[in-house]
Amino acid sequence: MIKVLVACANGAGSSLLMKINVDKVLKKLGVPVQKIHHCSLSEGKSSASQYDVVFCPLNFITMFQYSIDKVLQL
């Protein structure tokens, strides 16, 4: 089972919508999910290493450089 983090600028509307869509897609693909958490980018940056998969807008991906360097990108 995987843990998924979904982060957007404020952690409110956009990340919640992204979380709902990620959940739908992962269920459709049969990916076992332990947890999906949505949050702001600042929270996501500090907690990204605790998750197996992180989703964020591409224009903010450099905020997660530390985690990117440690994991496989898809």
How does this model look, in words?
By secondary structure, the chain is an alpha/beta fold. It has one domain: 3-Layer(aba) Sandwich (Rossmann fold), CATH 3.40.50.2300. It is built from 3 helices and 3 strands, in the order E-H-E-H-E-H. Strands 2-1-3 form a 3-stranded parallel β-sheet. Helix 1 (13-29) links the parallel strand 1 and strand 2 (33-40). The radius of gyration is 12 Å and the shape is globular.
| Annotated CATH architecture | 3-Layer(aba) Sandwich
Domain count, please report it. Answer: 1
Determine the CATH topology.
Answer: Rossmann fold
Total beta strand runs: 3
How much is the radius of gyration in Å? 12 Å
Principal-axes shape call: globular
> What is the average per-residue confidence, as pLDDT, rounded to a whole number?
85
How far apart lie the N and C ends?
18 Å
Total number of helices: 3
- Element order: H for helix, E for strand: EHEHEH
Coarse structural class: alpha/beta
Strand content: 15-25%
Q: What is the CATH first-level class name? A: Alpha Beta
Please give the share of residues in helix.
Answer: 40-55%
Strand order of the largest sheet: 2-1-3
Largest sheet: 3 strands, parallel
CATH superfamily: Response regulator
Poorly predicted parts: none
